[in-house]
Design goal:
Blueprint: H1 2-18, H2 22-33, H3 38-45, H4 51-82, H5 102-116, E1 120-121, E2 127-128, H6 130-133, H7 145-148, E3 159-160, H8 166-175, E4 179-188, E5 200-210, H9 215-230, E6 236-243, E7 246-255, E8 272-274, E9 278-281, H10 283-288, E10 297-304, H11 305-312, H12 326-329
Parallel strand pairs: 1-4
Antiparallel strand pairs: 2-3, 4-5, 5-10, 6-7, 7-8, 7-9, 9-10
Helix pairs in contact: 1-2, 1-4, 2-4, 3-4, 5-9, 5-11
Bound molecules: 3,4-dihydroxyphenylalanine.
Amino acid sequence: MEKELEELKISLKKELEKGKKEADILNIKSLYVGKKSRISELLTKLKDMSNEDKRKYGSLINNTKKELEELVNEALEKISSVSNVSFDDTVDYDVEVGSLHPITIVAKEVTDILKRMGFTVVQGFEMESEYYNFEALNVPKDHPARDMQDTYYLDNGMLLRTQTSGDQIHSMEKFGAPLRICSPGRTFRNEDLDANHENTFFQIEGMVIDKGISIENLVYVMKEILSEIFHQDVDVRLRPGFFPFTEPSYELDCSCLICGGKGCPTCKHSGWLELAPGGMVHPNVLKAGGIDPEVYNGFAFGIGLTRLAMMKYKINDIRVLNSGDLRYLSNFKIN
Ligand code: DAH
């Protein structure tokens, strides 16, 4: 008898450990201490026992029943403290699942690729000072390059940043050399809107500072990014370019994936799209970031994330991206 009662306790404990929901525990309760349970059966048998056995087993069986009940109650308390919410899984909820914005998707893809190459992802400020947006990037007050990047000047003396390039300076100041950063974010320009221009768009900046960096390192990184994003060989071409913060500078164009290079409004009928300008970081920029250009050099690039999303998803009008129109924007999936 003692052995059987001991075994009942052990087997109840095991069952309770397996129980996940309140309903499981209640089932176990009815099996072990309910009317038809073994312990109740033993209690009813007591009356047919000899007086000696009644004395011997009566309190033992009763005490065991109490112990079994306590074990069940403890398990119930534990479960209700974990979940106070009861969940009815028979109800058929019609939940609409959200989706990521196409620009968020490509930003995530590019940063994932760069992270694998050892880049740290940083985040800059949409409201920026003239110093970080222009001056520290070797674009002094009267430089003609400012004309091409007209923006919104704020009453507090700040501006809405025209490029993520200011994050090069913030990062050099913060981390010093050597350095590998990328910085995705929103940028602004005073633009007239058309299928190809928006006043609000997204870029990702990349910068590597180390000893003995060459333009080949940059071309390698760009090719890695583009081939992974497009899952296909993309034609690219390098053209000499001009940016005050890189020397030499170049423009990396990719063949227009919307028209296959034949020419369309998105590529201004040229068959090519400017996608990722870059170059070797200008010594003045390194100095502005507190880095000695005699010791270190580096490359930098900026990718138009908005343009990249348009290419990847064959979106032929930039305006839909800021439209908030879910009929259109919810059609894109992460790879
Ligand atoms: N900030 C430039 C723009 O918005 C793009 C760019 C060019 C970024 C050259 C760079 C670079 O880092 O090296 O037009």
